């Protein structure tokens, strides 16, 4: 069983280990043996206009996606935890569906819907698609944030003279903020790394992964792509680790167990 | 002056009738308790007064004003929640000052009244302590201070002592009583502990299944319970069937009493401490019956004897002080028991 697990992990992550290896390799061909250490591929990165503009597009899309899916996630998670309403289970199931649906299906069906509606696709449609696939993650994180709040705390605030709105700002928000930040970071990361939806639903402005993919056709660009990929992996790991740390800190603060979660 | 007045209040949870036609008047400055077994609707009634539960019919008035359209944040009530609901992201002083934001007190005045409130509940100097660094008893005090600092007309307490251990609970019972006398605010306490209600309250409403079974002061409640159910819920009540014969009542095991026959009476009750066991050499007094000790429980200061009588299926409990030189009787000993007719209460069922 253990050997199995190791084999699985190596198979899964070996390519990621190769990424930095070739990113620092002083050769235009991606092949062993390694030729020597260089940072020139990294230095070249900011000098390619198409690349920097795709980074900018990606960051913009990821930021808006993160904010949107977190706001919608707060509403959905709060409703799911605090209120009983008819059709709650099917509705929540529907929202969580993109979690198990292949992205290609989400992408193609959204494309069909947008085109049928006569809408021209662009960054906004990528944001819509990304929000759809980020929502389940946002909701799961925020669900546990809300679940960890004793309902009596919000009632106590009302009892002490605050309105429902000011209670949200004075009590609810401070108690869910680690979850809120975690949700923002994870949604941002998912959107930043996502390829299929971005590929299908973007038009003239490619996102970073789409740009990366387009460069794979040019063998001489490969080392630069490797450098970019390395940065992307590092950034993603950093953001996810930060998100998980915050989520755990939030749970610990509420005196809860820190088991479970995505990471 | 009537502080809280409920009339004809009803409340359903889905099909469950949680409050059934509650009529209740609570006086200003009173220490009032809602007492009843778990699930009888005490919390629901308290939350209705606080404004967290809507009522379907009937009216609720606080200090003469109808509360139908008044949300919890604008009611002159404050609540100490069963879980205490201390804000975990705020320290003790910030918790206590939470409700003062909308007051017209200046910052320095707020600091002063928070300090006074903490002193009143015995948490002087705890202001900077983090909320999750408090013990159960301290959390309870913070919750009290946080509510009292707003000088509400009514303080609502939902089983505030049930999470504390026995020693601390007994201490807090006295302290709460002292605090209530000191501030003069109407306290409404929810409890399932009959002893606690007796110790602390001016008046007690006993609730069963969403209804008020009896409302009285502690002594009346204990000595003259309105029904067998109330009598058995509060303290120990020996219950014996009553037969009607020739215009008189005859109590199983104890015999005929001088009370005239009443068709409605079916049982008689008597408290353990109003009966006594006559030790060898003691002369007869009051009414005397022959009995036999079936069981006993030794409590140190007291011994509780279970005695069997001819003509009575159940046993009677008699409590005896363990006075100096008084022997503890063995199981199986035949004894005489002494009781008084004026200690009897009669029940319809
Ligand atoms: N939010 C609710 N939804 C459905 N039933 C409830 C709710 N709150 C209380 N009940 C039911 O109403 C009854 C009275 O509850 P409660 O007032 O909490 O009793 P108590 O405080 O006397 O133990 C119980 O049977 C309980 O199950
Ligand atoms: Mg209760």
Automatic annotation (TrEMBL), chain A:
Entry keyword annotation includes Transport: yes
Record's subcellular location: Cell membrane
Record-annotated ABC transmembrane type-1 domain positions: 55-243
Topology of this chain in the membrane: Multi-pass membrane protein
Transmembrane annotation, as ranges: 7-24, 61-81, 93-115, 121-142, 175-202, 222-243
Keyword flag Transmembrane helix: yes
Keywords associated with the record: Cell membrane, Membrane, Transmembrane, Transmembrane helix, Transport
CDD domains on file: TM_PBP2
A single BP term in Gene Ontology: transmembrane transport
Pfam families: BPD_transp_1
InterPro entries xref list: Bact_Polyamine_Transport, MetI-like, MetI-like_sf
Taxonomy, superkingdom: Bacteria
GO terms for cellular component: plasma membrane
Family listed: Belongs to the binding-protein-dependent transport system permease family. CysTW subfamily.
Protein name: Inner membrane ABC transporter permease protein YdcV
UniProtKB/TrEMBL annotation, chain B:
PROSITE patterns, sorted: ABC_TRANSPORTER_1, ABC_TRANSPORTER_2
Listed GO CC annotations: ATP-binding cassette (ABC) transporter complex
Coiled coil segments of this chain: none
Stored SUPFAM superfamilies: MOP-like, P-loop containing nucleoside triphosphate hydrolases
GO molecular function annotations of the record: ATP binding; ATP hydrolysis activity; transmembrane transporter activity
One Pfam family in the UniProt entry: ABC_tran
Domain ABC transporter residues, every copy: 4-234
Keyword Translocase set for record: no
Source species, domain of life: Bacteria
EC code: 3.6.3.31
Broad enzyme group: hydrolase
Alphabetical keyword list: ATP-binding, Hydrolase, Nucleotide-binding, Transport
Keyword Signal: no
A biological-process GO annotation: putrescine transport
Listed PANTHER family: SPERMIDINE/PUTRESCINE IMPORT ATP-BINDING PROTEIN POTA, SPERMIDINE_PUTRESCINE IMPORT ATP-BINDING PROTEIN POTA
Protein name: Spermidine/putrescine import ATP-binding protein PotA
Organism from which the protein derives: Nereida ignava
């Amino acid at each position: 069983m253990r050997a199995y697990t190791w084999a699985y992990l190596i198979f899964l992550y070996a390519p990621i280990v190769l990424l930095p290896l070739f990113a620092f390799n002083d050769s235009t061909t991606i092949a062993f043996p390694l030729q020597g250490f260089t940072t020139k591929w990294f230095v070249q990165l900011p000098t390619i206009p198409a690349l920097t503009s795709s980074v900018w597009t990606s960051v913009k899309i990821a930021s808006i996606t993160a904010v949107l899916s977190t706001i919608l996630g707060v509403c959905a998670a709060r409703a799911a935890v605090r209120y009983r309403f008819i059709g709650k289970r099917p509705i929540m199931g529907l929202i969580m569906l993109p979690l198990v649906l292949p992205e290609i299906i989400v992408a193609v069906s959204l494309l069909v819907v947008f085109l049928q509606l006569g809408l021209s696709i662009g960054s906004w449609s990528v944001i819509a698609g990304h929000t759809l696939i980020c929502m389940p993650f946002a909701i799961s994180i925020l669900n546990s944030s809300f679940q960890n709040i004793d309902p009596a705390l919000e009632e106590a605030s009302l009892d002490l003279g605050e309105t429902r709105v000011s209670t949200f700002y004075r009590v609810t928000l401070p108690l869910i903020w680690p979850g809120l930040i975690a949700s923002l970071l994870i949604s941002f990361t998912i959107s930043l790394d996502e390829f299929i939806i971005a590929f299908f639903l973007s038009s003239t402005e490619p996102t970073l992964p789409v740009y990366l993919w387009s460069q794979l056709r040019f063998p001489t660009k490969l080392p630069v792509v490797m450098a970019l990929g390395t940065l992307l992996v590092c950034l993603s790991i950093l953001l996810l680790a930060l998100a998980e740390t915050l989520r755990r800190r939030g749970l610990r603060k509420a005196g809860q167990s820190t088991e479970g979660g995505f990471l | 002056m009537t502080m809280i007045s409920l009339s004809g209040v009803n409340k359903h949870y889905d099909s469950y009738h949680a409050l059934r036609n509650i009529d209740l008047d609570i006086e200003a400055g009173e220490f009032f308790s809602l007492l009843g077994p778990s699930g009888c609707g005490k919390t629901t009634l308290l939350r209705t007064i606080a404004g967290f539960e809507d009522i379907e019919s009937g009216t609720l008035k606080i200090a003469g004003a109808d509360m139908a359209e008044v949300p919890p944040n604008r009611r002159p009530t404050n609540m100490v929640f069963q879980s205490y609901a201390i804000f975990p992201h705020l320290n003790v002083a910030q918790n206590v000052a939470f409700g003062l934001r909308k007051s017209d007190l200046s910052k320095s005045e707020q600091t002063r009244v928070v300090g006074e409130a903490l002193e009143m509940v015995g948490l002087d100097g705890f202001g900077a302590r983090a909320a999750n660094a408090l013990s159960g008893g301290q959390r309870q005090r913070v919750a009290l201070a946080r509510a009292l600092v707003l000088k509400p007309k009514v303080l609502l307490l939902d089983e505030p002592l049930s999470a504390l251990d026995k020693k601390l609970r007994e201490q807090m019972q006295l302290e709460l009583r002292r605090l209530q006398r000191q501030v003069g605010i109407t306290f409404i306490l929810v409890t399932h502990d009959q002893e606690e209600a007796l110790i602390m309250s001016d008046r007690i409403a006993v609730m069963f299944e969403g209804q008020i079974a009896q409302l009285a002061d502690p002594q009346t409640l204990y000595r003259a319970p309105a029904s067998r159910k109330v009598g058995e819920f509060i303290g120990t009540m020996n219950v014996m069937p009553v037969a009607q014969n020739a215009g008189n009542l005859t109590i199983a095991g104890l015999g005929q009493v001088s009370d005239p026959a009443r068709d409605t009476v079916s049982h008689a009750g008597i408290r353990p401490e109003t009966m006594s066991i006559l030790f060898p050499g003691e002369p007869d007094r009051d009414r005397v019956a022959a009995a036999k000790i079936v069981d006993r429980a030794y409590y140190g200061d007291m011994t509780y004897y279970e005695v069997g009588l001819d003509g009575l299926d159940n046993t009677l409990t008699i409590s005896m002080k363990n006075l100096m030189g008084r022997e503890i009787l063995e199981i199986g000993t035949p004894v005489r028991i002494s009781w008084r007719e004026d200690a009897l209460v009669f029940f319809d069922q």
